[in-house]
Recover the amino acids of this structure.
């Protein structure tokens, strides 16, 4: 598509040759809002306090291991190149050395990705992100499903999805995070 932003001698037209790059550039420059792209749809990210509480409980439990591993946990950008997706996970654990960049990381650069479902987009976390995180190599994907009151851990990613599924477990049932975490996650307060 060609447009002419200004008239006059210095007017130039431009062409967007790569819609994926243009969309991902735009999402990074939305002022004041955190947003993600899920299958080409821009979604504002504004979690509720219950949502934040569940994420905080997980962070508190994994933080000692995260530090020992030389990693950070946060909700930084994850890019899925070649797709119309740019995710802001609720928690991603990444090596500290990779967290120096201002850009996005890739799912296969994480050690763990956690999504806490919301009423408005639970199926996105349960279905779409599960498929995409596996396709892009996130080694562990934990879904804390606040609507169904369950936790499910997915492991061993591949192009066709995760090959290991631990759950769904009702809240209150400990969920074992395998190596490199080697800890049981207390889910009673989600």
């Amino acid at each position: 598509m060609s447009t002419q932003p200004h008239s006059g001698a210095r007017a130039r037209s431009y062409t967007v040759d790569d819609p994926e790059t243009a969309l991902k550039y735009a999402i990074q420059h939305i002022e004041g809002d955190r947003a993600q792209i899920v299958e080409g749809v821009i979604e504002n990210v504004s979690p509720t306090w219950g949502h934040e509480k569940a994420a905080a409980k997980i962070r508190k439990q994994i933080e000692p291991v995260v530090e020992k591993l030389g990693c950070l946990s946060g909700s930084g950008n994850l890019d899925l190149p070649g797709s119309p997706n740019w995710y802001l996970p609720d928690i991603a654990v990444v090596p500290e050395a990779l967290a120096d960049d201002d850009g996005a990381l890739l799912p296969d650069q994480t050690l763990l990705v956690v999504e806490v479902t919301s009423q408005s987009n639970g199926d996105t976390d349960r279905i779409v992100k599960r498929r995409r995180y596996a396709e892009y190599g996130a080694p562990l994907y934990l879904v804390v499903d606040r609507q169904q009151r369950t936790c499910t851990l997915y492991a061993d990613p591949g192009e066709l999805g995760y090959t290991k599924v631990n759950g769904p477990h009702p809240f209150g049932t400990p969920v074992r995070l395998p190596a490199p975490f080697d800890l049981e996650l207390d889910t009673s307060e989600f």
Residues 1-14 have pLDDT under 50 and may be disordered. The longest strand covers residues 161-170. Helices lie at 19-27, 49-68, 122-135. The two ends are 48 Å apart (CA to CA).
